[in-house]
Amino acid sequence: LGKAINTYLKSISSDARTLFIGRYFYLDSLKEVAKYCGMSEAKAKSMLYRTRCGLKEYLEQEGYHI
Hints:
Blueprint: H1 2-11, H2 14-24, H3 30-37, H4 41-61
Helix pairs in contact: 2-3, 2-4, 3-4
């Protein structure tokens, strides 16, 4: 599972990857990750949602059922 997540994260944009890792691995707040990525909270929230949806789809293609 970890390898699949890493493969997916390598395939997305660096902004999306930075947001995702900051929010879900370092547990930074939405406000913090938006600030250090230089975007609004609304854009960060939207980008995180799309990244989660993409990750779910990728994992299901790889045989993981979430």
